[in-house]
Records
---
Amino acid sequence: IRIDNNMTSSQDPLQPGMYDVLLGRGKTGQDHPGNLRFREFMERSMKQFEQGTKSEKMALGQAAVDLVKASGGRFLSKEGSKGWEEVGFGASARKRVVSAFKNHRRKFHNVKTMIPLVSSSS
């Protein structure tokens, strides 16, 4: 008998597995193994994302969704007191992935372009 740590019965609250990507703001899933793997993919693909057309960006978003799915992971969103809910692998997940690329690009760009403040009295 094979037990998959991502599978739960319909009565059990949904528990994130190690390949799941936890969606949401803040530090919710920052150190979660699935999120770390997802961020590595984004970092490797960032140049391709920045230079891509809209359709190429959507295709890259779908590739990220497919990567999570192929590993046995899911996209989970925290829904208040309800706990975790599965987003699925359709357009909603792809849009969230593309949005994550854009947010990651903004953070990366802001860090690259920051100019250190130097006192003129030195």
---
Amino acid sequence: EIKHGRISQLAFLGQITTRAGYHLPGDIDSAGDSFDSFPNGFAAIGGPDSIPGAGTGQILFFIGFLELLVMKDSANGAEPGDFVGDFRNGALDFGWDTFDEETQLSKRAIELNNGRAAMMGILG
């Protein structure tokens, strides 16, 4: 639920950003189609002006690869009892270990609730 909540939060922000008119610069393919030449939202996947099927297949394959092989709860040497989704590689340290147990539980609950709201928001 943590992982899908975080992904939904990113998806929701992406939806808001593209609907506001901000798109990545450059071309999406070698044919010269720009990112802003495709519609927003679900129409980009299945509409008349949608991304070609090969491009959609590449996106789905990449998501499946990440889901099955990279974003595992046991990744990065997680110990039994570790909270899934925590950064374990030491690259980012926002002082998590300095919080007491009650504050950690509160922040985890806030993240879960925000993720749940994003999951509902991205569904429409």
---
Amino acid sequence: LKAMLFVDGTWLYYSLFERGDRCAIRELFGEDWQTTHCVDVSKLPAVIADDLTAQISEQLSSPRSVEVVRVLVFTSYREDVVSSQRVALFQQMQNLLFEVHLGSFQGMQEKCVDIALAVEMLHYATVPDAYDIGV
């Protein structure tokens, strides 16, 4: 089975790095977890493929492997930001050949990341044999 990952990069970034006291990673590894641990986004497709394979095999009582064929990441950041931890995260994803769809905005309001993700998901749903599972 072919899977495509549609990642809300803005949500991912804020979940990893901007949750403060509500961060599950911080609870588990301590306040300075970023100095002792790193997030290896290159493992994301394999982790999701393995989990989907296990879920499907359990539900269908027959093994079916899942392969992640494409990872699309949707995010935006302010036009005046040149470099930051956030920019570095998405550059790393681009270097891993994830398709990073980058928007920009002015002020403090991010818009359209979720809409762009939904549009691409629907687009690829119309492409024959593009994917069997969208995550």
---
Amino acid sequence: ELESLRQEAKDLGHAKREKDDLEKMVVTLKKELKYAQEWNEKSVMEYEVLVQNQMKEIQSLKNELASIKYDMANRDKKAQEELDQRCKEKEDAEELKKELDMVKKSLYQTEVDAKKLRRQVMLCNSRVRDWRAICLTHS
């Protein structure tokens, strides 16, 4: 029976050591769980900050894109206005060229008419001289 008591004491000692070991493991696991929860909370906060920063960056990029689109629209508008102005100037220049050609034709015709009139004036002057000569000889 003594042997049985010794064996039971030994078993109790083993059980007590196992219990102590298990309690130490529970304490260690609680510490690890607490550390994991703190790390998880910290990671979540860091992730939230990262997401907020990315949202700010996205908004900034959207604003920049809107600004670029606005600038491009203004440039397109100005370029179209300039193109329209140049087209109008070209049309005006073509119209002026047509008018100039008409004036040149008119001037050429006027010169032709002037030459004809000079010939007629010279012919009239010649006739007037002839008539004067006739009149002088008869008077």
